[in-house]
Design brief:
The protein contains ten helices and 20 strands. It is of the alpha/beta class. The protein has three domains: about 5-70, PUA domain (Archaeosine Trna-guanine Transglycosylase, Chain: A, domain 4, Roll); about 80-190, RNA methyltransferase domain (HRMD) like (Transcription Regulator spoIIAA), CATH 3.30.750.80; about 210-399, Vaccinia Virus protein VP39 (Rossmann fold, 3-Layer(aba) Sandwich). The chain has a seven-stranded mixed sheet, sandwiched between helices. It has a six-stranded mixed sheet with strand order 2-6-5-4-1-3, with no helix packed on it.
């Protein structure tokens, strides 16, 4: 790779220079006027204005719409081994400071752009780390990143996961499985908020669990004591199980994945929770059936998968959120609690608020937002990258 003083240059269009005053880490292909120096994919490059003034330093990928991922705005800072060490040390120090360092627990140690490491996600499950690679820049530097993580965290083993859609968009090879150290012999046991979990790192969605909802599950459970609770799109039953442990009278979780439902049932049994049950089924269809039956719940949780994957289907996604929340409101008894979420980064907090407004108007229910929440603090939001605030969780009272 080119040393910093010889780094190829990516020249911005004059009309796009101002946009990078906010230090956003993504340079899209449409922002680039031309490239000087013929960088190979994965090479370090300098981003410069149309007048040749240094803007930032990043890593080039001619196969991706995100043509350059920016990592440093200091022209004297190369993206070398020491750079990766400093950023990883900073990310780990944050988790220690916020108390997310239980050796038997689960935690997101590195949150991509949120920690200034675009394309790198690292989760810890007890003695193992799982790396999710979402950028070619990171995949080409795993041989640097992994030994540093091994030294700083001292896990028993490190696994790598690659999302297929990201692999296609980044031009990466798909790499899944053990990368360093000892592979787990089976499921990994972790304790999270009093709940005992067993994680299949090889087959679970993402890197194992949806850690971003951890604090929201606990917050919701405080409203569900002595209530009958419905958990739509429950996956492994995080909201249901936390509510059941927190004193809910009865919980029903629904998910379309038979495997996820079996995991949820096993978790209920493992934790001795007899006040929760799970069913396999399409959440939209089951919610409509429950409305038709005249069923009502003291608490309803709606935590669907990402509806808006591209800007082209944003309007369709907003309609889906609207319909889902109308169903949810119809199922909440007067004075009950609706916990409604969106993990679609393209749906802004204002968008989601207006979805709730429209649903409330059509459902003829008065809705009070009690809490507006986001991802857990081990998923920090970078002010330079609004996309890191992807998760919205509103806890509402419905009259």
């Amino acid at each position: 790779m080119h040393p910093p003083h010889e780094a190829p240059r990516v020249v911005l269009k004059a009309s796009k220079v101002r946009a990078f005053a906010t230090q956003h880490p993504w340079v899209l292909d449409a922002s680039i006027d031309h490239v000087i120096g013929g960088p190979a994919d994965g090479d370090e490059v300098d981003l410069v204005t149309d007048k040749g003034k240094f803007v930032a330093r990043g890593i080039y990928n001619g196969r991706s719409r995100i043509r350059v991922r920016l990592y440093s705005w200091n022209r004297r800072e190369p993206i070398d081994d020491d750079f990766w060490r400093r950023r990883l040390e900073s990310a780990l120090a944050l988790r220690r400071r916020i108390g997310y360092d239980d050796p038997q627990g689960a935690c997101r140690l590195v949150f991509s752009e949120g920690d200034g490491l675009s394309g790198l996600i690292v989760d810890r499950y007890a003695d193992w780390l799982t790396i999710q690679v979402t950028a070619l820049a990171v995949q080409k530097r795993l041989a640097v990143v992994v030994p540093i993580l091994a030294e700083l965290v001292r896990p028993r083993g490190i696994l790598v996961r690659t999302e297929r859609t990201m692999a296609r968009s980044e031009g990466m090879e798909v790499r899944d499985g053990p990368y360093w150290g000892e592979p787990p012999a089976g499921r990994i046991r972790v304790v999270d908020g009093g709940l005992r979990d067993e994680i299949d790192l090889a087959e679970g969605q993402k890197t194992g669990l949806y850690l971003d909802q951890r604090e929201n599950r606990r917050a919701a459970a405080r409203y569900f004591r002595d209530q009958r609770v419905l958990d739509g799109f429950c996956y492994h039953g995080g909201f249901s199980l936390t509510a059941a442990m927190g004193g809910a009278r009865e919980c029903l979780g629904i998910d379309s994945s038979q495997k996820a439902i079996e995991e949820a049932k096993a978790a209920a049994a493992r934790n001795g929770l007899a006040n929760v049950r799970f069913e396999t089924g399409d959440a939209f269809e089951r919610l409509q059936a429950l409305v038709a039956q005249g069923q009502h719940f003291g608490g309803v949780v709606l935590d669907p998968p990402k509806f808006a994957r591209t800007r082209k289907n944003l309007d369709e996604a907003l309609r889906a959120y609207h319909w889902l929340n109308r169903l949810g409101m119809a199922l909440v008894e007067p004075g009950g609690i609706l916990v409604t979420c969106s993990c679609s980064g393209l749906v802004t907090r204002d968008d989601f608020f207006h979805v709730l407004l429209g649903a409330a108007q059509q459902a003829r229910r008065r809705v009070q937002v009690l809490e507006q929440r986001g991802a857990a603090p081990d998923h920090p939001v970078a002010v330079h990258c609004p996309e890191t605030e992807y998760l919205k969780c509103f806890i509402c009272r419905v009259e």
